[in-house]
Design a protein that fits this description.
Radius of gyration: 36 Å
Distance between the termini: 12 Å
Strand content: 5-15%
Length: 306
């Protein structure tokens, strides 16, 4: 299953005709249904619809269509009905125009200051009053299916790019963890040598009375052991590697993985912070900083994964 981004855009359109008894004997006007779906990232699934009056009754069906295939994201579905390009201007019948003129006279009798109808107003009202023989539901749902399929394809393409980027960052983090692991024994050995040198120097200067060389050596080794415990990050590196392995598994699995990835990124950041706080060398500090930079980049991209 692919990894899906929550960001995408798609559109689809189809043409239909409006026919009514008022336009019998003439070619019905051709109207174009245009439907677009756009989505951006969101913690949950947030659906919004902008539909003309003729399609308002289709909102439940469109909502079911979207929720069946999209799990997260702020999704907006917008549909418009407009005159198709090259279509002739609809010619209202005399009977319909007469009814419209009568309605206008009645309204202006009560509202003398009402503005008279323009030609555009008359055409629009005649089109609405004439009704439509087109089953927009039968036309709109296939168009929505087409747009939704294109949206999922766009989201999958963007998701593949995000997955590849995350895989690259996972490999870089594994390399940094591999660089950190050998530094720990070296640091412990260096610190042990320092303690031994200091105690040897203290004994050479006279040191406290009653301190034997054996006791000094034991004290130096005890201090070195305590230091090794304080800087030990083996457990943090093990957990970090475990989280990286889980991220790699989820990216291969695909599907609805955004929330799990977000949690794992938080855990990676915690381990990198602990690694930095226990650092006893500039090299380990540099590795911790590089890790946190990579993890923050991953966090920004994971926010866009469904």
């Amino acid at each position: 299953m692919p990894v899906y981004s929550m960001t995408g855009y798609a559109t689809a359109q189809a043409e239909g005709t409006g026919a009514s008894p008022e336009t019998s004997g003439r070619a019905p006007p051709v109207r174009r249904l245009a439907l677009e779906i756009r989505s951006v990232n969101s913690r949950f699934l947030d659906l919004g619809f902008r539909l003309p009056d003729e399609l308002r009754a289709l909102e439940p069906a469109l909502r079911s269509l979207v929720t069946a295939r999209i799990r997260r994201g702020k999704v907006e579905v917008r549909a418009t009905l407009e005159q198709a390009e090259g279509a002739s201007v609809p010619e209202p019948s005399a009977r319909l125009l007469q009814r419209l003129a009568s309605a206008q006279d009645s309204i202006r009798a009560w509202l003398p200051e009402a503005a008279p109808l323009s030609v555009a107003d008359a055409l629009r009202l005649c089109s609405s009053a004439g009704g439509s023989g087109q089953d927009w539901g039968a036309l709109a749902l296939p168009v929505a299916e087409q747009a939704l399929g294109a949206l999922l394809e766009a989201r999958a393409q963007e998701g593949a790019r995000l997955a590849a980027m995350l895989q690259g960052h996972v490999q870089q983090l594994q390399q940094l963890a591999g660089q950190a692991a050998p530094l720990l024994p070296q640091l412990v050995e260096q610190q042990r040598q320092r303690f031994m040198e200091r105690w040897t120097e203290a004994l050479g200067l006279g040191g406290p009375g009653g301190v034997t060389p054996e006791a000094a050596r034991e004290r130096a080794l005890s201090e070195a052991t305590a230091f090794a415990i304080r800087i030990d990050v083996a457990e943090e590196l093990t957990r970090l590697q475990s989280h990286l392995d889980e991220i790699g598994r989820l990216l291969k699995k695909g599907g609805d993985i955004g929330k799990r990835l977000d949690f794992l990124i938080q855990e990676l950041h915690r381990e990198a912070n602990t690694l930095g706080s226990k650092s006893a060398a500039l090299e380990l500090t540099r590795i911790s900083v590089d890790m946190k930079v990579l993890i923050e980049q991953m966090r920004e991209q994971v926010q866009n994964i469904e």
